[in-house]
Write a structure and sequence with these properties.
Radius of gyration: 17 Å
Number of strands: 0
Number of domains: 1
Helix content: over 70%
Strand content: under 5%
Structural class: mainly alpha
Shape: globular
Number of helices: 7
Length: about 180
Amino acid sequence: MLFILAQICGGIVLILTVISVHFKTKEKIVMCSVLANAVATAQFFLLGALTGAVISIINTIRCLVFYFFKKKDAKPSFIVLIIFEIVAVISGSISWQNMWSLIPILVTVIYTYGMWQDNIKIIRITTGLVGFGWAIYDIVVKAYVGALQETSQLVSAIVALCRNRNNNIKKIKEQKINII
């Protein structure tokens, strides 16, 4: 029963993360990440994947803090970034189960940096990298729907990057036409 509940949580996270990278504002991306991380926490606890669960709690808190900074039209300081990076490493070390525990720690460090940025392109790139790392971890801990979700997140991030690139090329062409 716990396994099935974990897979249902993975499905919810799948929906949230796939749509998140298509939002045009950082606030919406971050709020979607808050919800996704909260549900992922439950998923990992249900599967007994302690490091994944603990790191997901840290990620939920990080996303909330970054969201409130953005709502005040401010960027978290470099100190806030470093604190979250250190907390992720320490929490991951304390909850260490095996060598696979390194993956949630590393991808959290990468994504924390990405979320700290204001550049949506960097957020999307780090989202793709994180999706790849979490997919491997999910397979190891038997979060199979989660692995599908992370793979979808990777593909979705790539699509969003390509779509945004095409829009930028179109804008440049339009500007050239207006100049002539």
